[in-house]
């Protein structure tokens, strides 16, 4: 854990081995109802967060309630993680999405189908070699 990190632990926060958190990473298990009538009652909710082994979380990233981050994953600086992120990927953005699969996690597809975008803004990162595509 680096300088200025916050863990709001109204529920379980599991942090795996060899996890690196840069400065000002925020991990929030708490959340509030979105319906005004329920929110005005003062009710607060919480959901667990699970961070796998060998994860790197970049500076000022926010990990929201109920999220799981898989092993060997990198979360880019400034990301807002609102959904689960699988293992062996690089993910970034607001809302955080996969921008690259780690090389040892690539699946060779020989069907000739184009790569599926994992995040529209990073589609240009898709790599093809001959008629084989990686995803």
What is the strand and helix layout of this fold?
Layout: E1 6-8, E2 13-15, E3 20-21, E4 26-28, E5 30-31, H1 36-39, E6 45-46, E7 49-51, E8 56-57, E9 62-63, E10 68-69, E11 74-75, E12 80-81, E13 89-92, E14 97-101, E15 108-109, E16 128-129, E17 132-134
Parallel strand pairs: 1-4, 2-7, 3-8, 4-9, 7-10, 8-11, 9-12, 11-13
Antiparallel strand pairs: 5-6, 13-14, 15-17, 16-17
Q: Would you kindly provide a written description of the structure presented here, covering whatever features stand out?
A:
The chain is mainly β. It has one helix and 17 strands. A five-stranded mixed β-sheet has the order 3-8-11-13-14, with no helix packed on it. Strand 13 and strand 14 form a beta hairpin. The chain is globular. The two termini are 32 Å apart. The C terminus is likely disordered.
What distinguishing features does this structure have?
mainly beta, 33% strand, disordered C terminus, 135 residues, five-stranded mixed beta sheet, 17 strands, 1 helix, four-stranded parallel beta sheet
């Amino acid at each position: 854990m680096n300088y200025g990190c916050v863990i709001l632990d109204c529920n379980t926060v599991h942090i795996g081995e060899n996890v690196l958190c840069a400065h000002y990473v925020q991990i929030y298990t708490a959340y509030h109802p979105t319906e005004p009538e329920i929110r005005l009652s003062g009710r607060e909710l919480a959901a667990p967060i699970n961070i796998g082994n060998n994860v790197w979380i970049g500076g000022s990233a926010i990990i929201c309630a109920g999220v799981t981050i898989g092993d060997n994953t990198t979360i880019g600086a400034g990301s807002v993680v609102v959904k689960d992120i699988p293992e062996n990927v690089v993910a970034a953005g607001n809302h955080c999405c996969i921008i690259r699969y780690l090389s040892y996690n690539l699946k060779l597809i020989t069907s000739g189908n184009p790569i599926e975008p994992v995040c529209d803004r990073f589609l240009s990162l898709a790599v093809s070699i001959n008629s084989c595509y990686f995803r």
